[in-house]
Each structure stands twice: as structure tokens, then as C-alpha cells.
Amino acid sequence: MHSFKSLSDRKIHTLFPIVLSSIIILGSVRLILDSFKSNQSNILKVYGKPNGENNNGVHVVVSPEDRLKEGCNVFEGKWVWDNESYPLYQEQSCPYLVKQTTCLKNGRPDSFYQNWRWQPHGCNLPRFDPLKLLDMLRGKRMMFIGDSLQRGQFESMVCLVQSVIPEGKKSLHRIPPMKIFKIEEYDASIEYYWAPFIVESISDHATNHTVHKRMVRLDSIAKHGKHWQGVDILVFESYIWWMHKPLVNATYGLPDDVKEYNVTTAYRLALKTWADWLESNINPLTQKLFFMTMSPTHLWSWEWQPGSDENCFNESYPIQDPSYWGTGSNLEIMELLKQAIAELKIDVTLLNITQLSEYRKDAHTTIYGERKGKLLTKEQRADPKSFADCIHWCLPGVPDIWNQILYAHLLTTFQNLT
Ligand SMILES: *[C@@H]1O[C@H](CO)[C@@H](O)[C@H](O)[C@H]1NC(C)=O
Ligand SMILES: *[C@@H]1O[C@H](CO)[C@@H](O)[C@H](O)[C@H]1NC(C)=O
Ligand SMILES: *[C@@H]1O[C@H](CO)[C@@H](O)[C@H](O)[C@H]1NC(C)=O
Ligand SMILES: *[C@@H]1O[C@H](CO)[C@@H](O)[C@H](O)[C@H]1NC(C)=O
Ligand SMILES: *[C@@H]1O[C@H](CO)[C@@H](O)[C@H](O)[C@H]1NC(C)=O
Ligand SMILES: *[C@@H]1O[C@H](CO)[C@@H](O)[C@H](O)[C@H]1NC(C)=O
Ligand SMILES: *[C@@H]1O[C@H](CO)[C@@H](O)[C@H](O)[C@H]1NC(C)=O
């Protein structure tokens, strides 16, 4: 089913609100925790150090196996069982994972979801080498911008590299709405910036936000943008917060003129604001831009198993049908993204991870994640139909593959520079 406008349309529009509001908001527990750990004056400590001489003499060896075969579409392929190479790190060996993603620790009984390799049809993805990634990041900042799904990708990236950095030479700083992972010896950082709509909104507080009350400032981005200036690698993502309801309250033009906008229209206007910001603030010679397409949801099992009425809970294997596409991944929004990027005067690489992730009904956190900042209670776990999270992903897992693809593109860029 490649059309968003289908029988299921109504079901989506009625179900998204419930599922989303229960899952993507963070509760007061998390809020208090975060404000404890955060401390504005930390920002000086994090960036207080002037750049060293690390920038010079960067030498990344790009081997023939690192090269993506020209013309190969890495987004078309299949998942192959590979319990020898995957997972790329162990859940318990990465201290930077938040409770929301540590499914095994939270009680998930099966770990098959960790053992799948993405195999593109026409080529191989390069092996992820953390030292090569660090070499490419030397003296640089890489920032992931978006919602909690993007935070998952940020954490995945941190876990992919952290094991090769000695204790005491790495640190995670929480400076809301940012998280900053510093790698001292490389004078590098991997960062996360909370901006669920990319443009400004009333949901921009890192923890005190709710999808119930959305008010998006479709033409404002400067407050966020000033934190993105000069960042070497920017990776954007924004989707699920838009999809709460078919209409969204927003302003465009007069700051007090709040109107209900069709989400498609609102998304298009927000992308325009984003594109304008990029064109006047980005130096394409020194900054590299990526945009992740939507992360799919698996909220309704009838989509892959007609006649059933469950969700992604208790799913242990990827979907086999190569043409499978869930109704939650809106192709109109996809098209808007494609157009916006095509019209930009600077290069943004679109990483189209939707299809490959669509197959992974088995890889969500289900009842082994968090809800309002807390693990599920025994009673809630007994009712997966109401409480399973089929939006977020366990780690290690699918976001590691997104990062492997990002890594492959960075290698290509480096190869072209030298
Ligand atoms: C923030 O950190 C600074 C320096 O580490 C410390 O002096 C200050 O007391 C901290 N403030 C709060 C509110 O924790
Ligand atoms: C890996 O998978 C194969 C095939 O399913 C199985 O026979 C083997 O025991 C697995 N190895 C490990 C280490 O889990
Ligand atoms: C969260 O934000 C709302 C609206 O901005 C505000 O009224 C409320 O006091 C905030 N809650 C906390 C705990 O800061
Ligand atoms: C929103 O606008 C788009 C494009 O104009 C249209 O295709 C879509 O049906 C509209 N959606 C709603 C819910 O009105
Ligand atoms: C927009 O805001 C008004 C006033 O707060 C509210 O009644 C309405 O439900 C909101 N619309 C949407 C789509 O959230
Ligand atoms: C999960 O699925 C298996 C069959 O695949 C079934 O035997 C088992 O009862 C299910 N578990 C739960 C908790 O629904
Ligand atoms: C992403 O991939 C899907 C599935 O192959 C395709 O339908 C969609 O048009 C692609 N999106 C873009 C922006 O190229």
C-alpha cells in the first residue's frame, strides 16, 4: 500500500494522537532528573578550550572496501541474519544509553533484533571503523537535530565510537536542549539538539513538552539556528511530531496570528524557512548537511498480517515482503522533502532510511522502553495492546545501520576531498 490516502487513513488519524501523546512526551521524572544534571555554566567547560593544532595533518585512509560502488543505491536491499558481526556493540558496554533504548536490560527476552545486517542489492556497506570516524571528526563537531528518534540515532553514534576512547578522555554533557559527547584527544564532539519541528515551537523545551499542545512558528528558526552555526556536520530529522493530528496550530507572518494549518502545508512552509536559513548561514565548503527521512512506525499489525489486530509487540523477525510500506510513512511529506532539497542551492544529502526500517517490525522497544520517563509497570506490561511503543527503537539496533550509512557517505566525502 503506497498511498497514505487509503482505508486506513481514518484509523491513522484517530490512533496517532493516543499513541503519540503517551509515548513521545517525557514525564516529570525525566524533567527533574535532567534539570539536576544540567548546568548552564557547563557550556564554558565544554567549549572553553580553544582549538588545538589537531586540525592539521588529518589523514584518513579510505580503503577500496570503504568506497560505495558508484551508482549503488544503499537504500535498496534486504536484512540478512548475521550474528557474527552484529550487534556492533553490546548494550551493557555503552554507558551512554538512556533507559528508553536498553531493551534487554529492561527485560526483553529475545535479542534477535540485534543480529541483522543490512545488505544493499548492488554493493556492500563499508565496515564501521570507529577510529576512521574519529579521524574524520578530528577538530570537528557533528550534530544530530530533531526529536527523540534522532536522539536515538545520536546515542547509537556515541555507542558506536565510545569503546575505542579511553576512560577520562570522553564525556557526556547535558546542556538542554543539547547533549554533547566530547572526545578530548580528537578535539571532536558528537552532539544532539532537541528541535522536534526543526523550526521554533512551544515544544522546544528539552523535557517540558507535550504533543497535545502544538504551536509551531513556521517562519522562525533563528533561536535554534544560532546553535547550529559553524557546526561541521549537521544531520536533520523531523516528522512524527507533525503527525499528531491532520491540523496543527501555527503562526506564519504575524507572531500573534495563530491559525490551524493543514500539516502538509505547515511542513512545506517549515522546510522553506529551514532552506532559507541554510542558504544564508551555511558555508557549503566547510559544512556538510544530511537529512534523515521518516522513521517508520509499526502500530498496526494488520498492515503486515492482514486480519490481525495487534501491534509490533512480540514480533521477532523482519518483514520479508520487499514492497512492504506502512501507512504511517506519508509519501506526500516525503515528496515535499525531496522537492525542498532539490530546490536548495547547497547540497543536502537525503538519507532515505524509511524503506529499510519499514521491514523492521521486530526492532521497536515495545513494552521494554519508557513511558513518561519511567519503565512500564507490571500491569502496563500485561497490556501491550495499549502500552507497547512501536515508534522508538531498541539499541543496539536499526539506528546503528542508519549511522553506518551516514558513515559511508562521510567516507565518500573525505575521499573526494583528498
Ligand atoms: C554549576 O556548575 C558550577 C561549576 O561546576 C558550580 O559552581 C555551580 O554551583 C553549579 N550550579 C548549579 C546550580 O548546580
Ligand atoms: C548464530 O546463528 C546460527 C544460525 O541461527 C546459530 O546456529 C548459532 O548458534 C548462532 N551463534 C550465536 C553465537 O548465537
Ligand atoms: C512546563 O511548561 C508549562 C508551559 O510552558 C508551564 O506552565 C509549567 O510550569 C512547566 N512545568 C515545569 C515543571 O517547569
Ligand atoms: C492537506 O493539503 C494537502 C495538499 O494540499 C492535501 O493533499 C491533503 O489532503 C490535505 N489534508 C487534509 C487533512 O486536509
Ligand atoms: C488550536 O488551538 C485552539 C485554541 O487553543 C484549540 O481549540 C484547537 O483545538 C487547536 N487546534 C489543534 C489542531 O490543535
Ligand atoms: C508471542 O508469539 C508466540 C508465537 O510466535 C506465542 O507463542 C506467544 O504466546 C506470544 N507471546 C505473547 C506474550 O503474546
Ligand atoms: C525514499 O524511498 C521510498 C521507497 O523506495 C520512495 O518511495 C521515496 O520516494 C524515496 N524518497 C525520496 C525523497 O527519494
Please explain how this structure is put together.
There is one protein chain. The chain has 418 residues and is of the alpha/beta class. The chain has helices at 9-23, 28-37, 42-47, 130-137, 148-162, 222-228, 263-281, 331-343, 354-358, 378-381, 384-387, 398-417; strands at residues 77-81, 116-120, 141-146, 170-175, 178-183, 188-194, 200-201, 216-217, 233-236, 247-251, 259-262, 288-292, 349-351, 364-366, 370-371, 374-375, 389-393. Helices cover 30% and strands 17% of the residues. The strands form five sheets. Strands 4-5-6-3-9-12-13 form a seven-stranded mixed beta sheet. Strands 7-8-10-11 form a four-stranded mixed beta sheet. The structure holds 2-acetamido-2-deoxy-beta-D-glucopyranose (NAG) (7 copies).
Fraction of residues in H or I helices = 25-40%
Strand content is: 15-25%
Number of helical segments with 4 or more residues: 12
Q: Name the bound molecules.
A: 2-acetamido-2-deoxy-beta-D-glucopyranose
Derived from helix and strand composition plus strand pairing, the structural class reads: alpha/beta
- The total beta strand count reads 17
Average pLDDT value?
Answer: 87
The Cα radius of gyration reads 20 Å
Biggest β-sheet, characterized? 7 strands, mixed
